Amino acid sequence: MLKQAYNNLLSTFQFSQEGGPFKRQQQSQQEREREMTIRVHEKAQKTIRDIPNSAKGYLELGRLYRQDKKLLKALNVYKQGLQVVSAVDPQYTQLQKEKNQVSATLTQRSRGFHQFLPYDVLIQIFSSLDFRDMLRCTGVCQQWCNFMMEWPEFWQKMSREMPQVNRSTLDPLLRRQAQEFRLEGPLDQGLVHDMLLFLSYSDNHFMEKLCFSKLDLTDTEADLLAEAIRSTSALSPSGNYLDPPKKKEIIIPNVEYTSLTYLKLSFHYIQSYTRPHGTPIANGRLGGILHQCPNLVHLFMDSGGTINHKHLITQVIKQCHNLETLVVAPRAELPTILNGRVDTNEFDDDTTMSTNNHSSNVGAPSSSRSVPLSIRNNINSKKKPLGIRRLVLSGKNLKLDDNLMVSIYKKYYKSLELIYLHYDGRHICTSSFYRLAYHGAPRLRDIYLSTESDANWNSDKHPPVSKALAALFTACPALEIIDIDNCYGEVSTYYNERSRGTFLIVNNEVLKEISNNCPQLRKMRFKGARSHTREGLIQFASTDWKYLTDLEMNIEWQHVLEVVNKLTVLKNLDIRDDTSLNHQSTFPENHRETANRILEERGGRLNITRT
């Protein structure tokens, strides 16, 4: 019915009328042309996927839509291209020109809407539509939208179909004044359904951001949400379904999310579920979803569940060529230790849109904005992404291995700026450290390593961790922060036999390589038992450190004052007082007072952690 109404109305505005029925002898030619069109369409889509920052693919696809008289689709393609193509691109001006031509044509066709058909005829046509089709009509053009909003029957049907939504909420959405929409729970189930119904069937391609969080979704509402997220530039769904442990994929088949730059997948509300025989679910499908997001920049995935994280990470590396942030962690959240080191506004920026832009919000207030998102995307696109800058891999179910880590380091060693790895299994990927050392990590500024393992893997296949760490630090000249957690003593007599030779060992060799190769170091933290000697510690402290202001490690009391005197820029020193170990001598009182006074004069302090 909707298609028939479109044809009846749009045919009035066509500049050239369609001819009569095609002759039989023309059918084969028409089929060949159709096949050619399909090939051209696929080629243009492939160009956009492979080179998203080039105007070439957008021009090809837009011209194809113009040739087929699909001007709205052509306009959307041109707009999408202008958001990601740099202004220095040789074809940027042509892309802008063709977008303006299509926009002008559509504007001209929509003029004089009421003059072409009598009012009674329009009423008869629109009255035959159901409410969802009416919503679609509001997005055809501004004239259609104005007609609907001035038509009483439209609002009467809305009150019946969406009883919990008022006109003031929908008005800015229908008039395209809102560029952001938020639906934040907990909310009444009927209101959630009504708002998702509206977003699913109205024209929301002009939206720059849709945000959904803390919602209880039924399967029906999940389907509506899938329809609503076709053209979002940021997506952060977090919600539980009313009938766990069912899982529903919020995705639309055969649709590419070329505008999607930020994706966060958290499954912490959903109970664990496996198919018969205990096989993980949705690995292939989820990998296919990621394949549909060629312009993804920031990806956060939950490390829980039964999905094969290694497989998905491999797919991401292959398909998402613009990726800069890869986080696989519990609840898809950054570890708390990274607070302050990572600007989360870069992922989902709620403070950078013009204050002239409107926001429609249900359930929570919206932040003010300063720069339009479309402008920000265009500016950012001028700087060609180097690859993954932030790599965070952590979680109980995350099984890291050397092959995966080697493939990551081999491809992204030039771009890596932050590495956070948490090992909870019986194997730490020491061989991959040698691979990163081989390539070098010229931009790496932060490295965080932690483990829960206490197994000994000193073998040819899994080289000793101390040697691997020493090799790693030879190739990181820009390091500013080193944080290693649970580094137990290599020859410690203070732990039982099972704990000897544990992972993340920081001995004299590791300290020496840090001293020789990391001149930018500002903060170093080693949490765990001591495996260095006095000689190694003093050699480290004797280095001419220009920026090392924060140090936390296990130091014997009698060496504290000497370390403070040698590290002339040190401000904060944290040392551990392990009451479980009887080997620690008494802290000389004069040493403690003197060291604390020196650090306070530098603007810091001496802190003793009781464990």
Automatic annotation (TrEMBL):
Classification via SMART domains: FBOX
Highest taxon listed in the record's lineage: Eukaryota
Domain F-box positions: 117-158
Segments for region (Disordered): 346-371
InterPro entries, per database record: F-box-like_dom_sf, F-box_dom, LRR_dom_sf, TPR-like_helical_dom_sf
Gene3D superfamilies: 1.20.1280.50, Ribonuclease Inhibitor, Tetratricopeptide repeat domain
Biased amino acid composition, Polar residues: 352-371
PANTHER family cross-referenced by the UniProt entry: F-BOX AND LEUCINE-RICH REPEAT PROTEIN 6, F-BOX DOMAIN CONTAINING PROTEIN, EXPRESSED
The protein, known as: F-box domain-containing protein
Organism annotation: Circinella minor
